[in-house]
From TrEMBL:
GO terms for molecular function: metal ion binding. InterPro entries: DinB (IPR007837), DinB/YfiT-like (IPR034660). Gene3D superfamilies: dinb family like domain (1.20.120.450). PANTHER family: PROTEIN DINB (PTHR37302:SF1), SLR1116 PROTEIN (PTHR37302). Belongs to the DinB family. Keywords: Metal-binding. A divalent metal cation binds at H48, H136, H140. This is Damage-inducible protein DinB. It comes from Bacillus gobiensis. The keyword Zinc-finger does not apply.
Length: 171
């Protein structure tokens, strides 16, 4: 059986794909439509999630938190400019990077010492932080669902329980 962190990450990829598939069914302008919500558009939510996930894999790979934050800032504008199909490819490529990293046993329990921007140090491990990455994605998929409802559209189920059920059915 896969390590729980790997399984949770696989769920995260599945849930993101569910969202992308739903968004591609909707009129093209919905992706950038302005909405009064936590984020101003669906494209902004996906940009935030992507850059956050990118930052964490950088940290997992040995880069500093400051590097991850600077990378996100550097790539924010160009990422926001991407269309839905381009974002889907970027998420897929990033997922491949995570899977390659997480499937190396030495990496899953890799100890990390992360310097918070405040200067404080946090001692943790990759396996302790993967659930954070997944939880962050889940939280923002909830934002997407709420925003779609505000715009008059339905979303799609992305629950972990559904994922486990579908997995037993061979998806």
């Amino acid at each position: 059986m896969a390590h729980l962190s790997v399984q949770l990450y696989e769920y995260n990829v599945w849930a993101n794909n569910q969202i992308f598939n739903r968004l591609k069914e909707l009129p093209q302008d919905v992706y950038r439509q302005e909405v009064q919500s936590v984020f101003s558009s669906l494209s902004n939510v996906l940009t935030h999630v992507y850059l956050s996930d990118l930052g964490w894999i950088e940290v997992f790979s040995g880069e500093s938190m400051n590097h991850a934050l600077e990378l996100a800032e550097q790539r924010k504008e160009q990422t926001e400019a991407k269309e839905i199909g381009e974002m889907e490819v970027m998420f897929s490529e990033l997922a491949d990077r995570y899977k390659s990293f997480l499937n190396q046993t030495k990496n899953i329990n890799k100890p990390l010492v992360i310097e918070h921007p405040s200067g404080d140090l946090m001692k943790t491990s990759v396996s302790d932080l993967v659930p954070h990455v997944v939880n962050h994605g889940t939280y923002h998929r909830g934002n997407i669902t709420a925003m779609l409802r505000q715009m008059g559209y339905t979303s799609v189920a992305t629950d972990y329980g559904l994922y486990l059920y579908l997995k037993t059915k061979g998806m």
